[in-house]
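Example (one chain per record):
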Amino acid sequence: MQHPNTASPSGNAVSADNRHQTGSDDTGVDAGHNQDHHRGKAARDEWLFAPDIPIGNNPLFEWPLNARRILTYYRDYWLTVSEVSIFFVLAVAGWFALRGVLEGAAVLSAGWVLAVWALNLAVVLVFAGGFHLFFYQLRAQGTDLKYVPQFGHRGGSRFTFGSQVRDNMFWSLASGVSVWTGYLVFLLWAHAQGWTPAITVTAQPVTFIVVALFTGPWIAFHFYWGHRLLHVGPLYRHVHSLHHRNVNIGPWSGISMHPVEHVIYFSSMLIHLVVPSHPVLIMFHGYMLSLSAIFGHTGFHEMMIGNRARVAVGHFHHQLHHRYFECNYGSVDFPLDVWFGTFHDGTPEARRRLKSRLGPRWQR
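Predicted structure:
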């Protein structure tokens, strides 16, 4: 996920209005390098646009604990227009939309299963398709707030159907939506059977809120280990390389994965078999996995609405992974990359550390 404000290790939350955009000429040399040494240098050397660096992580896992920073971090997630707040509203709306057909969820039937699949398909088409139309077809924002100047890949034999967009759409819709729906259907069915520890908002509001708040850190924890596994030789060559052929990413790249990777990626939802949960929380978890990946692969840091309003979309933390491959396996919500020495904070110093760690394997 991308936090609405980029928090640096010093504890300074950087608002959207203070983000730094670099100018570049035809040679790719930064035209605004005198503005800020670290930001300008990183952007001049590597990026068309870069957020303030070094990028930070969830302050909940920093010691000593700083209550103000933690509250600010979660306030910006939940009480602003952000990925998390959008996905939670979608989960509530989706639950109300499906509540009628899910009354019979204790019995597996084509009717409610297809309704769940259709809803998942629709939200992916709306968000991935909408972002692709806005950013890549209409180019309504040009290259403003775009990490790299390229708009995807031209195609070639490495892509299914010889096209990056058709390839990404196929794997996202045929495999991604199907596997996600499979997990969601199983969990809703198990919930209806009474096999999971169920809660209600009115009877257990505190538990409901706690589970919602810790969904992001749990996803980040699970994603790190699954992602590290996928970078092991055979699994990378035969499975994860399908996703990584998207070096210049776009919204349809988000959940464009091999079916085996989808099974691993969405398996974090199985936590709802053992933690107190509710269908809204299960659906929210699914949106956090599927739609956050779509947001994070737009290739743009923020979406500009009108002259001033912006919504954070891109995940610079993960953009660094797509460029350097062997760093930033998780997300900012749980700092396993920091703890295990795989964190790239966007600075030239982090790049040098990565180069030293990789040794002869360094290719960039």
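Caption: Residues 164-193 form the longest helix (30 residues).
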